[in-house]
Each structure stands twice: as structure tokens, then as C-alpha cells.
Amino acid sequence: MPETVTTSRYLLRPVVAGTVLSLGLVTGCGGGDGPSGPKATGQAAPEASASAARQALYTGDPIPGLAAQPAWSVLRRGDANRRCAGSAALPAEQQPRTGDCAVGDAFLLVEDLSAPAASGETRPRTARFLAHLYDAATGEERRSFTVTCVYDPSGGDTPQAATQVQVGTWKDGSPAVLIRDCENTEASGLKKATVYTMYAPSGAKLGSSTYTGEDHAALPVVRGHVLLPGADYDDRSLAPIGGGRNLVLPADAEPLDTGQGYATRGDGVNEPLSVLDQGTGKTLWTTTDLTPPADIAKQSEDGEEADASLYPLHGDQGILVWSASGSDDAVLTTVDLRTGATLAVGPHTTLKQFTQNTGPVVAPDGRTAVVNFAEGAVAWDTRTGAELWRQRTGDKEIRPHTVTPEGVLYAEFDQEDAALAAGTGKLLGMLPEDADIPLAFTTDGYTLVTADNALFAFAATKP
Q: What's the confidence (pLDDT) of residue 238?
């Protein structure tokens, strides 16, 4: 355990606890060709389910940072195990292995009820998924969704739960559920139609749009907008779900995170990094306009621009990491994404040579961040820049994963999993050998733990 020291492209996302869930929408297969463009529908009131999750007995060891006993549980049933949903902002081939369960103050779990296709089968098959939206605090099922898709098993396009039921964000950046429904009735001979519908955590329908064609079946959805297909060198259109004016994403720009409403252009090394307003496409600022921290400026040769990389933080703020060109010594700063203004200058850290394959882990309120790019973890207060603690040379390696709403850091600790106080670095305890690191928490502070063929909802506790 390190001693604690208190001193004063598609971009990587930090792990931020919190997100939402949705409705009980029963969807199915309809006949005929769908429209060639998006079809918008209005809002609908939720129809809440009164059923509650079935209970199971937790017999595992206590997990540091979580309550001694679960608030509720839900049994897993044979082959139709309930799993976390997919991530709406990512394409099908980049879906995370663990999925997304937490959506605002609820959990979204999906069952695959599809019958497996026999080898070499060519007859149309039906994929069926049943999704459940649970109140995170009580386990009451708010809504359920049934998603049904007819497909050709010989075509290699078998629908997957992670692409049909997903967690994303709405146009205002709030968490939302995305349901991708199918409207085709034959696996061949008809155009495939996909209905994109998003729901608020309450279960209220936010909006819906329908698209035809295989290339529109599993498009990323960023901040309530469908990222329409296009060539790599073309500007991309972001079509609002439910109708409205399309936004334009420049060909060389990528959205920053999923809900902050900004995009970036340039890698900050070979060319300046620019931040764009995702709603207008207007460039807000570039790193050329900014003055790097004094320690970085001293290391830079005259006329040489410093390197910079940007990570989302919270709201309209980001973490901008500065380093002299070609140097692995970096300074962490907090910036206003609207203007590029430096809000706080944080501690030094060491970058991994060439590319970073990890990013800062951020507390749900954005006030504390922890990062280990290459040579040891460092934690800091993003509001003031003050260093909170640092892993010293020779200490056991800390690889941060999650900061809970109550300030507990879950991390790999010399190839074991541990809980530490995010504000001090104090070791709180090791996780049981059969327990996975909790990766996501709801906005009201609950996480799901898998054990004994059941899922258990635990509340986060203070260090």
C-alpha cells in the first residue's frame, strides 16, 4: 500500500458512475417496406409495472465500500441469464464485454430468449430479447421491453442483445435507454427497418425514428442523435431521434464522451487539438490559442508547440493533459470546454510512450480524479488542482477503475482487486477473490454484484 502524500481518437472516456433506464415497450414485427427516411413520433406517458425483482440470499464475503447486505436481488435463470445492456454511443464491433447496467436511478438487464439456429440452417429465424428496468433502490420492475427481430441465419447478421437494448444519453445529456426494434416480417425479400426509440429514466418515451437498410440497423447514437453512415473522408450527419434539424459532424472530428455536447479535431501532437460545439459544428478553441502551464512552457523549445490530450470530466469541463513535445512529463489541468480557459492546474504525471490506452477515472461529481498513465497513480482535486496522494516508486502498482459516489476507489492493486479511499489513498481492504470490481453505479449510489447465480444490488458506503 503506498504511503499517502498531501501536497498542494475517439477520445478515451473516463469511468464515471451513474446513468438511466427505461420503459416496458412491447415491440414486434410488422409487414411491408419501411419509409426511406426517419419517421418521428411524439411523446408517450409511461405505464409502470408493479412487479418486483425476485429475491435470493447473498452468501458471499463483504465487499469493502459496499453495504454489508444487498438491498435486493434478482435470480438468473439458466441460459437466459440477465445481462447488462450495450452502449448506444459505440458501434456494434466495439461493444464492451461487461455492458452497461446503470441508467440514472435504475438498472437495465436483458435476457436473450432466442432459440439457437442449427448449423447450415437457411430458414428465417426469430431473435427475441426481454429487457427489465429495475428501480435501483427497491428492485421494483418499472417497465419491461420485448424486442423481436426476424433474420436470415445464413447472412451472418444475427441480432445481438447488446445492439438491440442499450444505455445512452438524450439530447440534453441526461441518461436514457435506447431500444432498437425490427419491423421486417421476412428475412429476405424485404427491406429491413429499424426503429430507434429512446426513453427517460421514468419510462416516458422521448422520441422515435425509423430507418431502412442494413447499414442503418446498428448505428451509434450520441446525445439523442443517430450518427448516419458515410465515408471516412465525408462530413457525418447526426439525425435527432424524434425529428428535427440534422447536425453536422466534420469528417475529421469525433464526439467527446457521449453526453457533453462537444467534439474534438486533431490529435494534439501532430496537429493542434480543437474543440467544437457538437450542436453547431463551430470551433470553440484550439490548443494553439491557449497558454500551457508554466512547467511545460519551460521545457518547450522556442516556437515549439506543446502536446495536449483531452478527456471529458463533468458538465462543461474537461481534463487537458499538457506535455512538452516528445516528453513523457505531463501536467494535468482542468479546462472550460466552452472557452478553453484553465480552471485549475493540477499535479505532474508520467505519460506512456507513444499512445495512452487508459484515461482518468473520475468521481460522479467530477471533483476527484485518479489516473495512472504509465508510472504510478496520482489523485487530485479537479476544482483546485491540489494533489491528494501519489503512488511512490517501489509501491505496489495501482490501476484505477471506478470511484463510487461515496468516495471509494476500486482498483487493481498489484494484480489483486482492492478498495481505497479516493481522497487519501488509504487501503480499505481487498475484494473477495470471487468478486468483480464494481464498474458502474446509479445516480442514487447502487451497483450490481454477481454471485450465487443471482444479481445483488448493493448501496455504496463511505470509506
A: 93
How high is the pLDDT of residue 375?
83
| Sequence-separated (6 or more) residues with CB below 8 Å from residue 261 | 173, 223, 277, 278, 279
Residue type present at position 30: G
State the pLDDT at residue 258. Answer: 61
**Beta 205-212 vs 193-199: how paired, if at all?**
antiparallel
Mean per-residue pLDDT pooled into runs of 10, the chain (463 residues): 33 34 29 35 37 70 96 78 90 87 95 82 87 95 93 80 95 94 61 89 92 90 92 86 92 80 92 92 94 93 88 94 92 97 96 73 95 92 97 86 97 92 96 90 95 91 94
CA dist 242 and 346 (Å) reads 42
pLDDT of 202 reads 84
Beta bridge partners of 349: 330
The CA–CA distances, whole Å, from 349 to 279, 322, 415, 422 equal 33, 10, 22, 17
Model confidence, pTM: 0.83
d(CA 25, CA 35): 21
What pLDDT sits at residue 146? 93
CB atoms within 10 A of CB 18: 18
pLDDT of residue 395: 82
DSSP reduced 3-state for 239: strand
Q: What is the DSSP string of 347-379?
A: EEEEPPSS------EE-TTSSEEEE-SSS--EE
For residues 286 and 319, give the distance between their C-alpha atoms in angstroms, rounded to a whole number: 14
Residue appearing with cell numbers 454511443:
89
Which residues fall within 8 angstroms of residue 44, CB to CB, at 6 or more apart?
A: 204, 205
Q: Provide the 3-class DSSP secondary structure of residue 398.
A: strand
Alpha-carbon Rg for the chain in angstroms? 23
Q: Where are the beta strands (DSSP E) in 287-426?
A: 307-314, 317-323, 329-336, 342-350, 361-362, 368-371, 378-381, 387-390, 398-403, 408-413, 416-421
Size (the chain), residues: 463
Closest-CA residue to 177 (of 131, 216, 139):
131
3-state secondary structure of 277: strand
